[in-house]
Amino acid sequence: MVAFWAENVWSLNVMLMFAIRLLGGALLPLTLFPSWAQEYLSYTPFPYLVSFPIRALMGQVSADEWMGGMGILAMWTVFTVALGALIWRRGQLRYTGVGI
After folding, report:
1. N or C terminus: fewer CB in 10 A for the chain?
2. Which PANTHER family match (predicted)?
3. Residue 74 structural domain
4. Is 6 inside a domain boundary?
5. In this structure, which long-range contacts are made by residues 52-55, counting pairs with CB atoms below 8 Å and at least 24 apart in sequence?
């Protein structure tokens, strides 16, 4: 939603996708990160976008770990939806359409 205030957001999208792949375990396995980084990342949404679904499909996730992961994802979903709604309302106040 940065597009409300910026004209070119392609580079931000590329940076976001790189961050998701790196911190989610697609570029490097999360087990290669230091233990403190793994602990920190377990509270972010990134591992639950890439690594967690793969581990769950492979049967490496216990029921308790799965429920905890779904809880963290639910909290991030609520936060993201609330933040998105706020930004959307503020962005609509400043939006001007340009072009054809």
Report:
1. C
2. SLR1174 PROTEIN, SLR1174 PROTEIN-RELATED
3. 2-94
4. yes
5. 54/25
Structural domains in the chain (count): 1
What integer pLDDT is reported at residue 75 of this predicted model?
A: 96
Residue 8: is its pLDDT beyond 90? no
pLDDT tier, 54 (very low <50, low <70, confident <90, very high otherwise): very high
